[in-house]
Amino acid sequence: MYYKRFLLVYMYLMYMINKLLGAIVGAVIGQVVAKKEGAVLGALVGFAVGHFVDEIIDSG
Predict the structure, then answer these.
(1) YMGG-like Gly-zipper domain location, by residue (predicted)?
(2) Which of 35, 47, 48, 60 has the fewest C-beta atoms under 10 angstroms from its C-beta?
(3) Are 39 and 27 in contact (CB under 8 A)?
């Protein structure tokens, strides 16, 4: 019984860490682009990079 609970908590935590890493990487790269090219392009690039990193981590 505890095994199932532990597995669910572990899977949820890994999912959230995965999303957090994608968001952090996207935010950092978005800030760098925003300083050079402007806020709108920085936000778009940050979102795209964060999503891409998230998908790479998901795929293993």
Answers:
(1) 20-51
(2) 60
(3) no
- CA separation, residue 45 to residues 1, 6, 22, 37 (Å): 44, 36, 12, 11
Between CA 37 and CA 3 the distance in angstroms is 50
9-57 pLDDT per residue, tens: 999 998 899 889 999 999 999 999 999 999 999 999 999 999 998 888 8
Nearest residue to 19 (alpha-carbon basis) of 59, 58, 46: 58
* CA-to-CA dists, residue 15 to 11, 20, 36, 55, angstroms: 6, 9, 32, 11
DSSP-derived secondary structure letter, 37: H
Q: Return the closest-CA partner of residue 33 out of 21, 44, 19, 18.
A: 44
Question: Full-prediction pTM beyond 0.90?
Answer: no
